[in-house]
Every structure is written in C-alpha cells, then in structure tokens.
Amino acid sequence: MHFEILVEDISGKTALEILIPKIISTEHTFKISYYKGLGHKVPKDINSTSDAKKRILLDLLPKIVQGWGKTLSDCPDYSFVLIVICDLDNRCLSTFRRELLDLVDKCNPKPKTQFCIAIEEGEAWYLGDLAAVRAAYPNAKEAVLNSYNNDSICGTWETLADAVFSGGQQKLSKQGKQARGLQKSKWAEKIPPHMNVDKNLSPSFCYFRDKLRGLTSQ
Fold it and tell me: What pTM was computed for the model?
C-alpha cells in the first residue's frame, strides 16, 4: 500500500515522518507533501482555479484529487490511498467533513481518499502523550499539562506553549507568526521521537493511527 499524504504546514510533515514508521511496517510506502496553510473554505466548484504558487491546501484540493483520480484510473491495480490531514481550528467538525467528502464525490474518476482532522490543532496529538512532552521538555509546567483535556477546543498550541515555552503563549504571540511557526517546527522535531503511538490519548490521533493500520490490512 502507498499513502500520498497532504498536510497544511512543514511542522506536520516533520512530525509525521517520525510517527508513521511507528504506525505501519516498512513494507508500505508513503510520501508527505506540505503546503503553506490550510485556507478558509472548501471549494464548492471542483473546476475552480487558484494560484498554485500560494500553495494553500484547500484551494488546491480539487485539482489534486482530480489529478490523482485520472492518474490512478490508468493503473487500477495500484494500492494507493490519498490522505489529507488538517486542523479543525474553530470549524464545525461534521460540516467540515461533509464539505470535504462532497468535494471528492464530485470528482470522476476519484482516488480512494481519507480525511483525518486534528481536533483542535496538530498540537493535540502531542498533548495526547504527556510522557513524550515531558521527555522532550523536562521542565514543562505540570499544572498546564495536567489541566489539558484531550481534543478539547481550548487553544491547543497556546496550551503547549504555556507548558514548554519560556514566557508562554503570550510571549510567543508577541514575537509574531514567523516565530510561532519556528517553535511549532521545534515541537515537531522534539516531541514525536518520544511518542508511543499505541498509548496516545488524543481521539483524533487514534482515528488517524487506526485508519492507517486498517487500510494496510485490507
């Protein structure tokens, strides 16, 4: 089985390159492509045009899905799944998932596609394994970590910043978007090596893990 995986930023790519080999065996292959943000809306028109140079995931998704569908129609025996991983942020989960599935349904031919949505943000997957956070950041603030409820809508990256970043999310926010992105990349490098994928308490991470394993067993 080959997995073509799309993520909304480079930190997601960094984390998944560490985590996926912990989930599935090396007989399966994967490639991760990252974008420069998720975007705001799922396009309703699959023929809508967008600026590819901006590399916004949702804007380019119709073109990506249709492109893979056409490519794979020429090799029907190829075991392939397109997986899109994105943050829920402040969206309604059921509405967002329905819009994504409707987009795929409009494509003909269409590749086998799965959507895995981190609730609320990708940092929720790190906070699903507090032992890994503590191993990566021995001086993490216990009170902050212990107050977190898995996959809660609470400002997830802010919670992680308050736990492990000197000055917390308030200081990191003042440093601007670029500094925040750099810090997220550091978390992606430092925390996943310590993560135990079988003991993670984030429901959205477990959904992703179990979906991968289920697809490889088919």
Answer: 0.92
